[in-house]
User: Fold this.
Amino acid sequence: MNIKRTRLLALAILLPCVLFSQEFIQGRLLDSVSKAPVVFANILLEGSSKGVISNEDGSFRIPMEFKSEYEGLLISSLGYESVSVAMDALSEDRLNTIYLTPRTIALQETTVVGYTKRSLAKRIVRKAIRAIPRNFSKDPFSLVGYYRDYQQDEGTYLNLNESIVEVRDEGFHKRDAKTTKYQIYRLVKNMDFPRDSISSMSYDYENQNKVIAQGFLPSYNGNELVILRVHDAVRNYDIDSYSFVNNLRRDFVHNHDFQMGSDVYLDGEWLYSVLFDTYKENVRAKGRIIISKTDYSIYGLDYAAYEWNKKKEGSELSNEDSSRMIFHIQSEYRPYQGKMFLNYLSFSNRFVVRLPPAFMLKNITIDTNNKITWLEFNNPVNISSTLDKEHYEVFFRKKKLAFELLKGHEEEDKVFIRPIFTSEKDETAYFSNDREALKKRMVYKVKGLMDVYGNMLGHSEQKEYLQYREFFTQRILQGNDGAENGVPMDKQRPLFDHVVTDESVEAVQDYWMNTPLQEANDPPE
Assistant:
């Protein structure tokens, strides 16, 4: 591993104390050229196998007590020079900004004599998939790490749930969904971030209240961690995972077109970068797989699918067109003691919810003394829209009634109606005191009304969100060396419906939640 010692280039971003717990050192990784955040970088405590992975904004945090226990941080990321940062150079009360230097390779260095770029790419991918049983552990192992799920609304975190979880994997020769067990050590519904009941509702494909455009995601009993694990195509390489990878071993090469990309640098080694794409059923999928040049180990798989109309829009697809993204899965694997292990797994998808109507019928009241009915709404009604009788239908005992609209009242949120009966018996029954029986026989249909704010009665707007589920390995334990104090997770229940004991929390003091910054600060010039 080629690592260079670096000093912090900027420690000048002073943040309000309320953003930080006194227990953590905060940092942020930026590209030294573009100043963009370095996402999913590995930050290892020097001299140990423990570490953390940077967030979407490049941020990370390290428990304060580690500053005296370890000499520094070892930071590495695909495509960058690895660096070492001394612990005593890290500020305890300011955001530590660390710049990583990108490492690129000249195009001619990727040329291999005897193959076209497309045929070489396909050959490399085939070899990497065949090598999975050799390169990944068949023996039991545990991944202890930080799990979180949340939604995003235009970059704002919503409903952030965090956990420390141990994933007890029986090895790659066993089916993950059937044999892997989970121990829960910490659970936090983070109240420092906004909570939103609309975006967190369950998917509802029957009533279309919450759906994934061009996609379908089973609920898995509401357990988002189980959903995440199902979408690790490498771990589940010999069974179906997701469209259009399907069965990685059997279908991936057949389903995609491949070409060589520029090699990627990591820890002193150049890795193959193979680009792929496919177009099926108005969906365009594309991505990148990172593969070792020596033993064909898979280091990373990045896969994204987008809504697409090839006839209308051609073949070009912008990397930034997230508004049409259906799902995006990012996974990375790192070597440890001769085998490859999951470093992080991130699964995001775009979804649409139907918002509650802004203008609704609130109540129907029958005035037995004045022989009238009034319709009460949640907002003041636009008077001009209430005067058209075509907007109303009144039924009693399945018969349509004539009616009169009453004017001149001063109730801004009400419409008054006098039903006209042809039968005295029906009129007596309508204005009786038997309210429960009346509800079954009376129907009011109202449409076309508007409130004073311009909202149409019963009209629902749609809103788009992003859903994320992410797991970041902090430590690898081989064999059956996992801790014993965690709470076993029931895969048939949502993760955050479990209850964690104090003993479980105490058992994992060496692990921590890498909570993202609530607001992204502009990087220094």
